[in-house]
Automatic annotation (TrEMBL):
It comes from the Bacteria. This is Polar amino acid transport system substrate-binding protein. Pfam families: SBP_bac_3. InterPro entries: Solute-binding_3/MltF_N (IPR001638). Residues 23-240 form the Solute-binding protein family 3/N-terminal domain. It comes from Pseudoalteromonas denitrificans DSM 6059.
């Protein structure tokens, strides 16, 4: 009788696990995730995660959402993978951190045409109006640095919108990692960048693949193993080193 009960429980457990669905969310964030015609088509992080999901045996579609929605989905729902997300002290215990995607250095950017803006310190930056994406790492960092939402900090729904606010003169500066800041002009259809990178690094962090805190151990193990295998066989480095990510 006991053996029968154990057998039934095992079957139920297996059935429950096998029916678990994985949701994968991200945002439009060139050059990591590139969206064209409302479809995710390219980007280093996208290609890495496409390979990770395939190796892990998942057929989940990668959903492109506004960052605040993607973030809150991963924060509150079960079995959700999110990328590319910056790891910070505030977020440390809110997610499972499955692996790194890229090292980041953060600086302030402004328009080259606004020659009056010269920044040599965070204190000087506080005198200008900044723009960042709502619920983003950048927005959180700016608040910690002393910026105040509704005063010298404006929040937007996406990164493209934030950079466009600089172009339209509705903000003076933005805060970005240099890989994005130095290449965003291509996404905005500029041959040469109209943005000036100011000369001091404010912070250094790392982009990660993360999972919602109540994600099953089976999913965590499969995704982590697949990502590690990409790094071990050189696929990860090859994707990051590609000059053109298609």
């Amino acid at each position: 009788m006991k053996l029968s009960i154990i057998f039934i429980l095992c079957i139920f457990s297996f059935s429950t696990t096998s029916k678990e669905t994985l949701r994968v969310v991200t945002e439009n964030l060139p050059p990591y995730q590139i969206v064209k015609n409302n479809k995710l088509v390219a980007g280093t992080s996208y290609l890495i995660m496409k390979n990770v999901l395939k190796r892990a045996g998942f057929t989940s579609k990668i959903e492109v959402l506004p960052w605040a929605r993607a973030y809150h989905t991963a924060l509150n729902d079960k079995n959700v993978i999110i990328f590319s997300i910056t790891r910070s002290v505030e977020r440390e215990h809110q997610f499972h951190w499955l692996g790194t995607l890229r090292e980041l250095k953060y600086r302030f950017y402004s328009l080259k045409s606004k020659k009056s803006i010269e920044l040599n310190s965070v204190k000087e930056a506080l005198n200008y109006k900044a723009v960042a994406v709502r619920d983003s790492f950048e927005a959180d960092s700016l608040v910690k640095l002393g910026f105040i939402s509704g005063d010298n900090l404006t929040l937007t729904v996406g990164y493209i919108e934030a950079w466009n606010m600089l172009l339209k003169g509705r903000a003076d500066i933005t805060y970005a990692n240099v890989f994005i800041g130095d290449t965003i002009h291509k996404t905005l259809s500029f041959e040469n960048t109209p943005f000036l990178k100011h000369g001091f690094t404010v912070e250094e962090y790392t982009l990660y693949v993360a999972a919602s805190i109540n994600t099953s151990n089976a999913i965590l193990t499969k995704i982590t193993a697949a990502l590690n295998s990409l790094k071990a066989d050189g696929t990860f480095t090859k994707i990051l080193s590609a000059k053109e990510v298609q």
